[in-house]
Structures are given as structure tokens and as C-alpha cells.
């Protein structure tokens, strides 16, 4: 008896039983993870299959051996069904295997098991013969038509499960490749080995070698579980996450294949297109929307779509869906509700136009009248009229800056101009307005793109240096003379230097004034203004927004004056993607 127990045929089944049972216990510990329940059930069935076969080798009673042989076929009939269930759950297609479909899938197995135990006759085994070899008890039988038919069906079910996993492995990239290969090895080995049993190519007559292959399956499954943590990293989690993201998006998402048939439609897209998402699946796009909305049989990327009651507007964005070979296999359409955005832009455009127009015209009247009063009056009355006129001039200038902001934000053209010519024109204009300021200019003759935006940015920085930084500004002129903060000839200076550094030109504007107030820098540092912390105008905002449009950068140093350094991309080049595009930096490197 001990020799029989030590037989490799018995020991092989014991190893297969213990290994698959251990995997089932491990799967139970991960029962809250996707696919863990069908995998655990699959492992328990495999363990029971190996154990039943092992016991059958040791039992002399023919009736018991026939019963165990029937149980062998019960496990053989059930395992492929659980494998397919696991494959669906593992790949994230579990919801597709509805109870009705599962019942249809298991129906042939149930019918076979009933026939197997009630009246096998010649349908299950056309004949059988007890065999004893070296103390091992076997049953050598010829398969009947029902068993052959079921075997073909079970092979198809097994291959279907493998196909589901292979399909996912090919489309999921490298993330799940190794564990997918391990699972396929685990299921392919028993399939191949079972073919030898069916054609009676086995070491012992009547020996079914399929359960021995379960030891290999256990090693492969264990490798997937413990080396690649496949239950912790089951792709179903990824698929469910994608599903949740798609369903929970506030935007409509419609996915079509290369024939413009809908393969995915989230609830928002269903509401937009006035169709049930499930009914939309398989339908062609032209069946869901008017032909006027389509260009070449699909949505125009720049089109706006009105919904059925005409109260909402949607911008449509599309992007291709490619396979692992970079072949386009479909497209994704995203419907973004732009109704409120466009309404807000319309309101802002109207308010901007009306306020700028009325402000400029009315303030020009105020300025003219105030200057008339200034000329007619004396003393404090004349000073009051002058103050009114100055404030009105500042408001008119503010309206001009608002127009500049609008120009910057709307500028999408790539007009180019020489930086030296641009700065030269700017300095000529400033010199005419401020003859008391001396400009020291040394700018390279390089071409910059979006010259309109560049001019707006540089002019506001130079204006800031002249009006607010220079000791010769109107508000600081008296103190400048008193404290000797002028050049030898009685003028004040603003320095504009530039040099080329790779694909950018660095432009520096420096003055010798008191520096930009902290409140101005604080508002820009936070990216917004508050009721207690805001700048006095739009100048630095024009600089910030302009630099953002130019994909440049700006740094500010305040120390016995203000030094502003711009990095502007040279026309025809691109900046380093690691550069701090549009970032503001202070004298400590941050702002």
C-alpha cells in the first residue's frame, strides 16, 4: 500500500490538489477584488477534480470507481464554464454575462450531468473495462456520442474564455501582459494534455492525465497571483474605472467605429442626442442627428449642436481611436455644453464695447471742460480743474488699455517684426511724450512673432518705468531733484537691453525709481485680485496675459529701481517645453 501511495501517479495528483486548493484559499482572502470569486471557485473545482481522480486510483470497488469516474466528468464539464466566467470578470466584461446568458451557457453541462447519473447507457460510454496496474485501479472506457459532443462544446467554451483574455491582453498594452501570458499557460496546458487522454495516448491504459496538468496550471496561476498580483491589479478595475469616468462625465461622450457605428454612448450624450444610450449602440451617426450637422458622414470638429428643444449649445471635439498598430479604428466625440460660456462672452463683449465707448467719449468731454475751467480759473479752483482733467485722462487711458487687453486675448495671428525696430518705434513715441527721460537702448536685430502682443507688453513695461518708476515722473519730479536722483544733465534714464540666448531673446527694461509696489506684485502672484488687494490698473495684467500668449516668461527684481527681464521666443522657433512659460518670478526666483 505504501508503494502505491508513493507512486508518482498518486503524488502528482496530491501535488495538484494541494497547489490548486492553496490558490483557492488565497483567492478567498482577496474576495473583495474583481474576478477573485470565479477564480477561487475555479481553483476549488480543480482541486476537487485532482482529489477525486487520486482517490479513484486507490479504490478497488467497481461501483465506487464508476461513481468517481462520473464525478471526474462532472468536474470536466463544469470547469470550462467557470473559466469563461473568470475570463469575463477578469477582463471587465462581467456585466455582459447576465444570469440568462450564464444559464444558457451551463444548460448543456446540466443536461449531460443528468444523463450521466440517471441513465448513461451508451450515450456517455459506449463501453468500459476495469483495469488494475501496479495496485492502481482504473477505468478504460470508450467515449459515447454525448461525451464527444460535450467535449467539443467544452473546448469551444474554454477557447472563448482564452480569446477574451487574449483580446484584452493585446489591447491593454504592457500593463497586464505578463500576468495574461501566465493565465493562458495555466489554461492551455490541461487542454493540450486532455487531447492525449481522448486518443488513449497515456502511460497507463485508462489513466486520464488531464488532472496531472493541473499542477502546471497551479504554478502558472500562482505565478500570476503572487508575482504579478493579478487579483490586486485585475484589468477589470481599469475597465470599471473607465466605465465610471465615461458615465460620470458632465460632457457627452460618443464612440464610433471605423464605419461610424456607435459602440459607446454615455447618458449625457444620450440626452443631447435625444436617444436612449442602449438603443444608440450599433446605430450609425446619421440615424441619430441631422445630415446638416455632419461633414463627410461624421461630426464637424468645429460644429455647434443644438439639442432638441433648442436651448443649449454644444461644441463638438473629436479625436481618433487607434489600435496597437496605430491604425485608426474609430473616433471619440465629446459634446461640451458651451451655452453659458457663450452667453457670458456675449454679455462681456456688449458690456466691454458699451463701457469703453461711453467711457472714452464721456471722459473726453469731461477732460475738455476741465481744461477750459483750468484756463479760466485761478488758485485752488484751477488746481481742482487740473486734477479733474488728469483723472479723466487716466480713465481714457484705462479704456485704451482695456482695448489692448481685448486685442491680446483675441490675437491668434503670427505676424513678425524686428525687435530692434519695434523698440525703436516705441522709444521714439515715449521720447516725444517724455522729453525729460533719457533712453539707453541696445537691442539685437532679431525677429519676434506676434509683434502686436510683443509691442503691447514692452510698451506697458516701458510706460511703467517712465510714469511710475523714473524719478522724473510727474508725481516724483520734485523729490528727484531734491535728492539728486537725476543724471548729470538733469534727465532721468530708462535702460533697454537685449541679447539672444538660444531660441529666445532676453529683453531687460530697467529704471532707477522706487520700484513696483508690493500690492501690484501680490495681485499678480495670486493670479487674481481681491477687494483688499488689487493693482491700480491694467498695465501689469497686460504684461502677464501677453507673456502667456507669447509662451514667454518674465522676471521682476525690485532693488533701487525695477528691473524686468522678458524671455521672448524668436520667430520660427519653439521654446524648451521645460521652460516656465508665462511664469512670473521675483528677485528671489519666485513670485
Map the helices and strands.
Elements: H1 2-5, H2 8-29, H3 36-58, H4 62-91, H5 99-118, H6 121-124, E1 125-133, E2 136-143, H7 145-171, H8 177-198, H9 210-227, H10 235-248, E3 252-257, E4 262-265, H11 267-273, H12 277-280, E5 294-295, E6 298-299, E7 304-306, E8 313-322, E9 328-337, H13 339-376, H14 379-410, E10 416-418, H15 419-433, E11 437-442, E12 447-449, H16 451-469, H17 477-482, E13 492-501, E14 504-511, H18 518-526, H19 539-550, E15 553-558, E16 562-569, E17 584-585
Parallel strand pairs: 11-13, 15-17
Antiparallel strand pairs: 1-2, 3-4, 3-9, 5-6, 7-8, 8-9, 10-12, 13-14, 14-16, 15-16
Protein architecture, described:
With 591 residues, the chain is α+β, with helices and mostly antiparallel strands. The chain folds into four domains: 2-238, Rhodopsin 7-helix transmembrane proteins (Rhopdopsin 7-helix transmembrane proteins, Up-down Bundle); 250-337, PAS domain (Beta-Lactamase), CATH 3.30.450.20; 344-410; 412-585, Histidine kinase-like ATPase, C-terminal domain (Heat Shock Protein 90, 2-Layer Sandwich). The protein is built from 19 helices and 17 strands. It has a six-stranded mixed sheet with strand order 11-13-14-16-15-17, covered by helices on one side. It has a five-stranded antiparallel sheet with strand order 4-3-9-8-7. Strand 3 (252-257) and strand 4 (262-265) form a beta hairpin. Helix 7 (145-171) runs antiparallel to helix 8 (177-198) and helix 8 packs antiparallel against helix 9 (210-227). Residues 474-488, 529-535 and 580-591 have low confidence and may be disordered.
